[in-house]
Amino acid sequence: MTIPFVTGPLNFLRRMATENTVYFWSLSVGILGPVLVVTVPPIRERYLGYVRPEDPPITYPMPKRPRKPPAGYEDP
Question: Residue 41: CA atoms inside 13 Å, Cβ hemisphere, count?
Fold first, then answer.
């Protein structure tokens, strides 16, 4: 007993892989990219022990003291 809604797409993919390999592989890689973006980070954190580094500072911290204006650089 064959299931037409399963064997039909598989036969189509097999034929596309042999006749139009460029289209088949470009679509395969294009579909695989977003799937990997969603699945790889949780796997990496959960099973491989990856710890995300802390974000770099966005602003430079100002010192907690009064500022001294620069002196000695005046125009003559």
Answer: 7
Among all chains, which residue has been given the structure tokens 């695989």? Answer: 32
Residue 73 counted as domain residue: no
The answer to the question of residue 25 being in a domain is: yes
Give the separation between CA 53 and CA 47, rounded to whole angstroms. Answer: 17
Q: Is residue 59 part of a domain?
A: no
User: How are the residues of the chain apportioned to helix, strand and coil, as percentages rounded to the nearest 5?
Assistant: 55, 0, 45
Q: Flag the least confident range among 18-22, 44-48, 52-56, 59-63.
A: 59-63
C-beta of residue 24 within 8 angstroms of C-beta of residue 17:
yes
Q: How far apart are the C-alpha atoms of 36 and 41, rounded to whole Å?
A: 8
Residue 34 falls within a domain, yes or no?
A: yes
Give how many domains the chain has, as a whole number: 1
